[in-house]
């Protein structure tokens, strides 16, 4: 691990000793490398990272389609991917993704337990606790670097839900199926009850445990309610137990959240979870923009990143509407990277302001080659410029001779 | 005006008396209706509004193209448009836009003075102060509802620029040409020196004066620097003079700003300008994402709106790269509306949370017709859903049978 931390410290331009301290205190997590890729760290004082969710669904289960999405995510500069497959041969697609990925791959093993139980016995509620744990083990065997497990969905949280009804109830797939199972079987969440076993599996396979927020709010109306906060308190305790057992963990966060609550969400996570790395799905700052949820999410994620979030799960334009395709994936990754970078600028992460300044100087100099090179998506920037502009044009077609940079340079 | 305020109070679900007070104190501005359209108010306690910039350039001067962009902006729900034409027959295109617009039309008359001087005498610096004032009058005659005039670009501001050099200098078109003129002619800004005449013209034609920020930062590195703040102090004094002379005014703001500075930018404007309506161009929270500047801007605009900004100028995907087309305009308006709405949610504007809740309930019920109807862009939402999903599908192709809403409803 020490060699790896050294390398990461170098890549991130941070002091090795600081990184070591953060790592030892659980404030930085290191995802192991996939067989053909590199390891990655998330957390305190590091660049904000971005994850892209890919994976089949029951409706669209096409391995090649998913591998194309993987490729799109990697080209767009994602830091990790999660395989959330729920359709077709789950193991086959997972192995192909792990094999083909140059970045750490995460997963949500409970999906496999749900799908298997439904396929074998016709009902997801029929899955048994051993099968839930076996699914985690299976993902470990397949080289997964981090697993989302919804250990924090407890009877206590569900009673909070019952006493404080929501507009949208449970919107986490893992969370909703676990809740159904708990109610159908009148039992506590096995992933909570047998948490030590979950930890041991993670330890055995060197997987980081991502403590999933099964009760995250999925509507602006439900943001930061009793059930969400109750679950976060539980998750904080689970995080401490993970560290005590020598397992790395990160914390997952919402969801749909109004803009003003986002800094409080981050603060609450940092306080209740001993400054553990915070991994956010969104947050989406409004519910009303399906088709633009990469934007509603980019807004929330940027504010979260500026406030201290460490790891951003992208949201694509097809969120709430359908399974994303490769282009959705590309746009989702880039939108999330923009948010992460906006946060890095605020937190003055090494290299962040320098990048913006390079772009600004290129603009000032009307150096178009350099502007394209410095763009987060050079291909897109070039294609938009080319749409209206001959190659050797000194300005752009927005202002032409009225270019302010040109006017200013003539002063 | 009283009938109009009554109507606006009703549309905005605010108390008529509160609106009247805000209006009388200059904290709300009312843009007069174009000949075939409706009036609009911006400011305190009102819904955040959105503006779309359209207009020809020296490189692309096609009236029909601009009318298509106007149509795209209106269909996407813009609250105002600004005609920033600098190419072709400026007056002809302006008159057509004013004629065709159902929302108030703004403009930047100095562009016309610059273009005219360059055409007549070969040099923009040759424009004379009378021509600058004449251009404003001309726009008044043509039915423009609000005009951006860069009265705050003063010798004092320019000396701040000189003493505190920027990466990107002046990025405002009007600002940079005025600065050139001032330096070439060794004179104070005529729009500052003859400010009372500017006010009288606005009064004569019932135009709102939008006090342009000619020295706004155009790079993250330049944000909130001496020149910007110096100009804002001047603008605050000009705002007071406008009110004393019975002219409505609003204040324009940056630009390129790091996320953490945005609330301070809004606070500073509100403090220095007696809570005048604040009209922001962006802010863009990073420089590095040409092609995605509707997103970098949506992030900044949402944070600004939540912090108290009143009026958001959109930014399109073609910003920094070329003149936008109709589709860029559509996307720009929708991104800005999302930001405004995210702000309205935080500020609990009447109807804002209700809209989100309608969408959330439709999601919970898997009522797809209602989800599409409630979407900010129903056409886009429907087309994304249809891409992967048969019409009568109960869930979407993201989760299929693993739909959390479905699972939750079965608990």
UniProtKB/TrEMBL annotation, chains A, B:
<keyword id="KW-0004">4Fe-4S</keyword>
<keyword id="KW-0862">Zinc</keyword>
<keyword id="KW-0479">Metal-binding</keyword>
<dbReference type="GO" id="GO:0009228">
    <property type="term" value="P:thiamine biosynthetic process"/>
</dbReference>
<comment type="similarity">
    <text>Belongs to the ThiC family. 5-hydroxybenzimidazole synthase subfamily.</text>
</comment>
<dbReference type="InterPro" id="IPR038521">
    <property type="entry name" value="ThiC/Bza_core_dom"/>
</dbReference>
<dbReference type="GO" id="GO:0070284">
    <property type="term" value="F:phosphomethylpyrimidine synthase activity"/>
</dbReference>
<comment type="subunit">
    <text>Homodimer.</text>
</comment>
<keyword id="KW-0456">Lyase</keyword>
<dbReference type="Pfam" id="PF01964">
    <property type="entry name" value="ThiC_Rad_SAM"/>
</dbReference>
<protein>
    <recommendedName>
        <fullName>Phosphomethylpyrimidine synthase</fullName>
        <ecNumber>4.1.99.17</ecNumber>
    </recommendedName>
</protein>
<keyword id="KW-0949">S-adenosyl-L-methionine</keyword>
<keyword id="KW-0408">Iron</keyword>
<dbReference type="GO" id="GO:0051539">
    <property type="term" value="F:4 iron, 4 sulfur cluster binding"/>
</dbReference>
<keyword id="KW-0411">Iron-sulfur</keyword>
<dbReference type="GO" id="GO:0046872">
    <property type="term" value="F:metal ion binding"/>
</dbReference>
<dbReference type="GO" id="GO:0005829">
    <property type="term" value="C:cytosol"/>
</dbReference>
<dbReference type="InterPro" id="IPR002817">
    <property type="entry name" value="ThiC/BzaA/B"/>
</dbReference>
């Amino acid at each position: 691990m020490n060699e790896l931390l050294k390398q990461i410290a170098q890549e991130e331009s941070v002091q090795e000793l600081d990184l070591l301290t953060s790592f030892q205190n659980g404030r930085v997590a290191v995802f192991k490398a996939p067989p053909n890729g590199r390891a990655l760290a998330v957390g305190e004082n590091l660049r904000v990272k971005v994850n892209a969710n890919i994976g089949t669904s029951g409706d669209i289960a096409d391995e090649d389609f998913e591998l194309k999405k993987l490729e799109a995510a990697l080209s767009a500069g994602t830091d990790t991917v999660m395989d959330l497959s729920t359709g077709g041969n789950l193991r086959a697609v997972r192995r192909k993704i792990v094999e083909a990925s140059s970045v750490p791959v995460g997963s949500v093993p409970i999906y496999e337990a749900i799908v298997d139980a439904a396929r074998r016995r016709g009902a997801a509620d029929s899955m048994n606790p051993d099968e839930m744990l076996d699914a985690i083990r299976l993902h470990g065997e397949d080289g997964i670097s981090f697993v989302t497990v919804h250990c924090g969905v407890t009877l206590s949280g569900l009673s909070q839900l019952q006493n404080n009804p929501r507009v949208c109830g449970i919107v986490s797939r893992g969370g909703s199926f676990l809740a159904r199972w708990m109610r159908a079987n009148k039992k506590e969440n096995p992933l909570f009850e047998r948490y030590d076993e979950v930890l041991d599996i993670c330890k055995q396979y060197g997987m980081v445990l991502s403590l999933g927020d099964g009760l995250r709010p999925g509507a602006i109306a439900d943001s930061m309610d009793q059930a969400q906060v109750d679950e976060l308190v539980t998750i904080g305790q689970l995080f401490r137990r993970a560290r005590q057992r020598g397992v790395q963990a990160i914390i997952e966060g919402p969801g749909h959240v109004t803009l003003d609550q986002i800094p409080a969400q981050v603060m609450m996570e940092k306080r209740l979870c001993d400054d553990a790395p915070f991994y956010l799905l969104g947050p989406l700052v409004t519910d009303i923009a399906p088709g633009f949820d990469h934007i509603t999410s980019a807004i929330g994620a940027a504010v979260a990143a500026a406030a201290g979030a460490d790891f951003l799960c992208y949201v694509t334009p097809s969120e709430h509407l359908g399974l994303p395709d490769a282009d959705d994936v590309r746009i989702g990754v880039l939108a999330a990277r923009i948010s992460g970078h906006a946060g890095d600028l605020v937190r003055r992460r090494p290299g962040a302001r320098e990048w913006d300044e390079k772009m600004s100087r290129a603009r000032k100099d009307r150096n178009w080659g350099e502007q394209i090179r410095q763009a987060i998506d050079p291909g897109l920037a070039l294609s938009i410029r080319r749409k209206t502009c001959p190659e050797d044009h000194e300005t752009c077609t927005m202002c032409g001779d009225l270019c302010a940079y040109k006017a200013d340079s003539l002063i």
